[in-house]
Amino acid sequence: MPFQKIEAKPYRLNTIQAILLHTCNETGELIHMDIVFWVTILVVGIAGIWDLTFSRIPNWLTFPAMVFAVGYHVLTSSVAGLLLSISGLLVGFFIFLSFYILGGMGAGDVKLMAAIGAFIGPRDVFYAALFTAIAGGIYAAILCIVKKNNRRSFLRFVTMIKGFLRTGCFMRMPDAGNEKATPLKYGVAIGFGTLAVLIPRMI
Which stretch of 4-8, 81-85, 110-114, 197-201 has the lowest confidence by average pLDDT? Predict the structure, then answer.
């Protein structure tokens, strides 16, 4: 008896199935964004408070944040998540490394931006760094207006940057013995810069 040829028909989702599938996908993306948003906010919030209180950003915050961010993206997006998180971490680290070398910020600030990059990826951490630079510039300008010693430190820092841009060589200018500037709490500026990127994503 010859076999009867059965022609396969493409399966089409009905309207209800399509709506449910679309809703599940959107819900998953929203949950994913919520976790990234709130954990990042928690990290920058703790960093800002700690920096204001103790003038430093602790390693017990930044390193676990990096590990959590990379692990979370790997679990949720596999290889693509790993690449996103690692590339964001590297961009966040290297974009502020030059400022650390120039003496404009502490190592904790660089590691905090790297942790943020691991959460939000290379593109968003780049914009977060731009907003951070703006917030930090406003903060530094206010401190320069308020205290004379801060003006000296700021001018010394600007002179070092100008020398680097003109010659391509970095020459550190030692501060005067009596120069005691108020330290810039850059963890707070990083928090504002990160919020400027994250909040529009959630609206």
Answer: 4-8
Tokens of 110: 């660089």
Measured in whole angstroms, how far is the alpha carbon of residue 22 from the centre of its chain? Answer: 30
Whether the pTM exceeds 0.85: the reply is no
171 vs 16: CA distance, rounded Å: 67
What are φ and ψ of residue 202, in 5° steps? -95, -10
Domain map (residue ranges) of the chain: 15-147+182-202
Burial environment of residue 147 by CB neighbours within 10 A (0 to 12, 13 to 18, 19 or more): middle
Convert 71-104 to b/e letters by CB count within 10 Å (16 or more is b).
ebbbeeeeeebeebbbbbbebbbebbeebbeeeb
Scanning the chain, the segments in alpha helix (DSSP H) are 15-54, 59-101, 107-146, 148-167, 186-202
The identity of residue 15, as a single letter, is T
